[in-house]
Specification:
The protein is of the alpha+beta class. The chain is about 45% helix and about 10% strand.
Length: about 425
């Protein structure tokens, strides 16, 4: 098996190299290059072949992304469209929906956001109250969403809404491909974080419209579709699951599509949010060596702990891949990966601030302040470190809190009894609502 996998990987990379030799041109626009990359299946290779992918495993996709970057070409478009919407629609959508929605995702033509969480339905996602009422060939949507990453630059949204309030809460939800370009009906308001950035937004929907053919997976079947989305989210956010992202931003609102593709290869401009913890253990080891903190035995111990956590995450990814190759699954693997990522973030936060010492109390909240702080300290790495430390409180919450992940593992994997509740048999309209 190991020899076969190695041969397959070699063949994939050779095929990619030959394709890049013929197709990569730095003078292409970002839009033109991403169209070539996406339609050839190299932008989202984990997608099935019927959905503009190559049907490869995640570790093979990581190797493909790394090879594209190593060859000096612009990598694939990033974002929630690639991570969540495209794979969900590939599973539950019709052939026409794959063509209408997945193609613009893999070619970077459209950016997506996730319209799931609500002020009164965060951890209890199935308790959401945003209503979708059918009106002829359309649905009229009213409600509020929150913690919407990238909402300001999204063309489309993965919307789950209450389509039938008179059945139990898990049964009356529908998953929609939602057009964000509805002025006067969609109001996106940024939420400023303690990092100084505004990656998240709250979204107000007022008499917004969705056509019937934008329902993915069937009316009132949205909870099953949403669980597919959440499974891809936990897998994508889990430790060891990262794929290098392009430095250009997809979608019509970001403004990068008409620009020269080669400029993004050389520019080194990262996506919104910066490089949070990528290569954190190498960064911390270098900083500890330079500052002398490496002589502290507890710092060395924590460096090894961080390395061990990352290796465990990598091995989990390999186990998942091997199980899929054999036609099996590892129950709860995505939840374990998500929990592992939260622990890596917390460990990185604590270790990084210990190594930085007093300088770890300094953080800049605007681009100008960051330039001034970097000039004052002479170490631009501190900006990455402090932002990662401030951001570390987020991963244990978004994508399903750590507590939710543990409940899922306990109930669905270990078979522990569920908490007493009538939620699954009582109509949603009769359930008590959060204030």
């Amino acid at each position: 098996m190991a020899i076969w996998l190695a041969v397959r990987m070699t063949e994939l990379i050779d095929e990619l190299d030959a394709w890049l030799d013929q197709q990569w041109d730095p003078d292409l626009t970002v839009a033109d290059w991403w169209e070539r990359l996406g339609l050839a299946g190299w932008a989202a290779p984990t997608l099935p072949t019927h959905a503009y992918g190559k049907g490869v495993a995640r570790n093979e996709a990581i190797a493909i992304g790394q090879r594209i970057t190593a060859r000096g070409a612009l990598g694939a478009p990033a974002g929630l469209g690639m991570l969540l919407a495209a794979p969900t629609i590939a599973v539950h959508g019709t052939a026409e929906q794959v063509e209408r929605y997945v193609r613009p995702i893999v070619t970077g033509a459209q950016a997506w956001c996730q319209l799931f969480s609500e002020p009164g339905a965060g951890s209890d996602l199935a308790g959401l109250g945003t209503r979708a009422v059918q009106d002829g060939d359309e649905w009229v949507v009213n409600g509020q969403k929150v913690w919407t990453s990238g909402g300001k630059v999204a063309d489309m949204g993965m919307l789950i809404a209450r389509s039938n309030p008179d059945v139990p809460k898990h049964q009356g939800i529908t998953w929609f491909a939602f057009d964000m370009h509805q002025p006067g009906h969609v109001d996106v308001r940024p939420l400023r974080e303690m990092t100084g950035r505004a990656l998240f937004n709250e979204v107000f929907l007022t008499d917004a419209r969705v056509p019937n053919d934008a329902v993915v997976g069937g009316v009132h079947n949205g909870w099953a579709v949403a669980n597919t989305t959440l499974a891809f989210e936990r897998s994508g956010l889990g430790a060891g699951a990262g794929v290098a992202a392009a430095t250009a931003n997809p979608g019509t609102l970001a403004g990068d599509l008409p620009k020269r593709a080669g400029d993004f290869v050389r520019g080194g401009r990262g996506p919104a949010g910066g490089a949070m913890v990528s290569g954190a253990q190498q960064l911390f080891a270098r900083m500890a060596t330079e500052t002398g903190a490496i002589h502290d035995a507890t710092v060395r111990q924590d460096l090894m702990r961080l390395h061990t956590l990352n290796e465990l995450g990598r091995f989990l990814t390999l186990r998942i891949k091997a199980a899929k190759e054999a036609g099996r699954d590892i129950p709860g693997a995505g939840n374990i990966g998500k929990l592992s990522m939260s622990e890596i973030m917390r460990t990185s936060r604590d270790l990084g601030l210990r190594i930085a010492g007093a300088a770890g109390t300094l953080h800049a909240y605007t681009p100008e302040d960051r330039r001034n702080l970097n000039a004052a300290t002479g170490d631009p790495r501190l900006e990455i470190l402090t932002e990662a430390a401030l951001f570390a409180q987020g991963p244990p919450i978004y994508g399903g809190t750590d507590q939710v992940q543990r409940n899922i593992l306990g109930e669905r994997v270990l078979g522990l009894p569920k908490e007493p509740s009538n939620d699954r048999v009582t109509p949603w309209s009769q359930l008590p609502k959060n204030a």
